[in-house]
Amino acid sequence: MKFNIAVLPGDGIGPEICAGAVKVLEKTGEKFGHAFSFTELPIGGAAIDGFGTPLPDFTVKGCLASDSVLLGAVGGYKWDKLPGDERPEKGLLGIRKALGLYSNIRPAKLWASLADASPLKSGLVKNGVDIVIVRELIGGIYFGERGRGEENGFEYAWDTEKYSVPEIERIARIACELAMKRGKKLVSVDKANVLESSRLWRRTVHEYAAKHYPEVEVTDVLVDNMAMQLVKDPAQFDVVVTSNIFGDILSDEAAQVTGSIGMLASSSLGDGTRGLYEPIHGSAPDIAGQDTANPIATVLAAAMMLRDSFGLNDCHRAIEAAVERTLAEGYRTADIYSKGCKKVGCREMARLICERI
Ligand code: IPM
Ligand code: MN
Question: How much is the pTM?
Answer without folding.
Answer: 0.94
